[in-house]
């Protein structure tokens, strides 16, 4: 399937579901990541699922709450050598 086909299918199903807002593959990806984090998923796991090279990209992409990020980062950042 091409990315255009995915886009068309998402829009078709969104309309069938009665959604009035535009839904894109990016919207689904963002929602997926945000819901995982809100449910307590480990930030590093979400990073891997999204294929991000850095944790900073995952933080920006998912709008992680700063307090939650601070509580997670010390345990997931390797110690300097």
Order of helices and strands: HHHHH
Are there runs of 5+ residues with pLDDT below 50, and where? none
> What structural class do helix, strand and pairing data support?
mainly alpha
Distance between the termini: 45 Å
Taken as a percent bin, the fraction of beta residues is under 5%
Number of helices in the DSSP assignment: 5
Sketch the major β-sheet: none
Radius of gyration equals: 16 Å
Shape summary: elongated
β-strand number: 0
Helix percent band: 55-70%
Mean pLDDT: 82
Kindly report the oligomeric state of this protein: single chain
Question: Could you characterize what this model shows?
Answer:
The protein is mostly helical and about 80 residues long. It has five helices and no strands.
Show the helix and strand layout:
Elements: H1 3-16, H2 25-38, H3 43-50, H4 55-62, H5 66-76
Helix pairs in contact: 3-4
Characteristic key phrases:
81 residues; mainly alpha
Describe, in short, the structure shown.
The chain is an all-alpha fold. The chain has helices at 3-16, 25-38, 43-50, 55-62, 66-76.
């Amino acid at each position: 399937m091409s990315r255009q086909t995915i886009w068309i299918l998402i829009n078709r199903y969104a309309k069938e579901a009665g959604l009035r807002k535009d839904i894109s593959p990016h919207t689904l990806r963002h929602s997926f990541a945000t819901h995982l984090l809100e449910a307590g998923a480990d930030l590093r796991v979400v990073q891997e699922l999204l294929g991000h090279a850095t944790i900073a990209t995952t933080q920006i992409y998912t709008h992680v709450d700063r307090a939650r990020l601070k509580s997670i980062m010390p345990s997931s950042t390797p110690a300097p050598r």
